[in-house]
Amino acid sequence: MRVFSGIQPTGAKHIGNYIGAMRQYVATQDANEGGAYFCIVDLHSITVEYDPRDLHDRSLDLAALLFAVGLDADRCVLFCQSHVAAHSEAAWLLSAVTGFGQLGRMTQFKEKGEGKEFVSAGLFTYPVLMAGDILLYQTDIVPIGDDQRQHLELARDVAERFNSRYGETFKVPRAVYPEVGARIMDLQEPTKKMSTTNGTPQGTVLVLDDPDTIRKKFKTAVTDSGREIRFVPEEKPGVSNLIEILSVASGRPIAEVEEDYDGRGYGDLKTDVGEAVVELFRPVRERYAELRSDEDELRRLLRIGAEKAQTTSAPTLHHMYERMGFVAR
Ligand code: AMP
Ligand code: TRP
Description:
Rossmann fold; 53% helix; two-stranded parallel ribbon
């Protein structure tokens, strides 16, 4: 099985990104003989307003963070999207088989564009670039969080349309969502997904937050009316979110966590989740500090990743041009 996933170098990464995505990346790097490819999708990050200096630093931050959570340059391929030109090229070619109407129905496009004075064309075509990312690698599985469901469906449609129009070229990828934690909610507004761009700062727990900040954010988490600690997301979104996070951070099934807190109060739960998350991220913070201080080494590792990614994606890009009828050079 070939694994591929992408993650944007914007905003500081939060516990939703960790639980919904990064944790899966680490788990798949060994389990899959076809190789695991993880892409820092810097080209996607220019579709909303951003500061160029920020993009540069955030990309290196994210590389260090991904290595710190457990990706290993010898066991997977980690690279920057902009280092492999095939991604931009594939996006243009695939735009020929992507429906304008389908792009317009994307929830992320509507949400991110709403109320903005300027909405870039890139924000609209974003899912085409994403489809290219995945399809270039003949990907079998894509570990992602729940918010990417619609984009993944689009990538599958694009693959099928290309295959039927130009001949069998792409594997049709399948998304894999974590069983627990595919959608971590904002601690202050538990009916909204946790997000650095659209969430509340106090309700967003960053992987690199210091221990006291993490404890405080959990202590002030919004819970629900009633007293019972039970996992029922529709009825008790706040408490259920905390149970889910504790389940992942402590490695215990949800039912066991529920049982442990039977008859206990919300205060205990909040304190314990806070501590469990502090411990979960402690080693990550330490490794991150070390890795981030050596930019030359990070760049070297990303260069190696880009070379491998380039080699793997080249044949598919070549087939795309050929089947679409372009004259060979
Ligand atoms: P992004 O930072 O938007 O590039 O997202 C990186 C990965 O994190 C994607 O696979 C998302 O689906 C996942 N993700 C983002 N927010 C959440 C969340 N609140 N809960 C679970 N997964 C998330
Ligand atoms: N759109 C994804 C997100 O915001 C990031 C992404 C870009 C991606 N290309 C990808 C995810 C390819 C999986 C596969 O989270």
